[in-house]
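Batch manifest, entry 17 of 40.
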Amino acid sequence: MAIVKPFKGVRPPKEFVEQVESRPYDVLNSEEAREEAKGNEKSLYHIIKPEIDFPEGTSEYDPRVYEKAAENFKMFQDKGWLVQDDKEQYYIYAQTMNGKTQYGIVVGAACQDYVDGVIKKHELTRRDKEEDRMKHVRVNDANIEPVFFAYPDNAVLKEITSRYAATTPEYDFIAPIDGFRHQLWVVSDDKDIKTITEEFAKMPSLYIADGHHRSAAAGLVGGEKAKANPNHTGKEEYNYFMAVCFQASELTILDYNRVVKDLNGMTPAQFLEALNKNFIVEKKGATIYKPAALHEFSLYLEGEWYSLTAKEGTYDNNDPIGVLDVDISSRLILDELLDIKDLRSSDRIDFVGGLRGLEELKKRVDSGEMKMALALYPVSMQQIMDIADSGKIMPPKATWFEPKLRSGLIIHKLS
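Output type: C-alpha cells
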C-alpha cells in the first residue's frame, strides 16, 4: 500500500511567489534560464540552474555549480524569500490549461515504496542523469522540485480537493511563459490530513507520470542517508520525497511527435509505396491533418499530409507495449523502413512535444531541416498504468504531460 505523509513545506511568502516560481530545471537550457532570471535575484533558477551565476559556458555539472545551489538555497531562506511552515501538512496544487483544471495533492512519498515498486515507473532512467539529481539533493539536503504522480481515481480525495478549491487559495497566478493558471491551498486541518494519509494507504500503487530521474535520485539518496545513520528509525524526513499526486482521469497527455532528416535512400514515392505493406495510406492534401484515433498516424512529406492507418495484424491488442502507437511507428516505420534502431541515440531523428502543435512539424520540414514528420495519437493514462502494472517499460519519447509543474511553490527538506 502507498505510504505518504504531510511535511513542513519550505515556500515563498505570498508576495514573493511570482518572483520565485519557475519552470522545471529540465525543460529549458542554461541560456534560457539566464534570460528568464535576468534582473530577478529571487528566481528559483539561482537554485535549480545555478550555472547562470557563473560566466556563460560554465557546465551545469561543474562541482562549483552544485555548491552554488546550496549557497543560494541558504541565502533564499536567510533573506525570507523561502520560509518553512511550522506544521506538517499537505498542500493542494491546481493547474488550469485551456479551461481544464487538474488538482494534485502534494505529499511526502516513501522512498521505500519506490524501491519496492509500489511507486511504479514506465520509463528507463540513465545513471548519469540520476547522479546529477542525486548531487543536487545531497548538496541541498532537500527535494527542491517535486515529481509528478498519478493515482487511481478516488472519490474521498476528490471531495477534499473540491472543497478546498471552493475557498481562497494561498497562491493564484498566471505563469508568464505558457499562460497557464497555478493555484495552491494549504491543508492544515488535522482531520483532512488523517483522511488523505488513510486514503493513499488503501492504494496498491502510485504511478510516476513525469520525473523518473528525480524519483530514482530521491530513492537512492534516502537509502544512502539511512545507511549512514546508526540511529536510523525509518521515521526520518529523508525517508520521503516530494510528489504532486493527481487523479489519473484528470491528466492531459499530449502527442509526442517525430521529425526525421532523411528517407534512408528512398525517394518520397518509394517511401510511400513501402508504407503500403503495413498501413492504409490516404493522401489528405496540404491542410494540416491530425490523427483522429489510436493506430492512425499523420505523415507530412513534400508539402502534403497523409493518413496512415495500421493494418490488422501489425499490433497485438493483448500486449500493453505492442499495442502502443509509439511502438507500431518505431517498429514498422522508423526501424523497418528508415533503419533508425535507437531513438535515444540516433542523430537522424528529433522529437516535438504536442504543445507546439503540428504547425511546428510542418515548419521544420518546409525549412529543409527535416525530410518528413510523423504525428501520433496521444498515449492514454490508462495505457501508461497498464504498462507500469505489467512491469514493462514504454518506448522512448512516448509521453508529453502538460501543463508542467511549476517549481518553487513548495520545497521539501530532508532534515
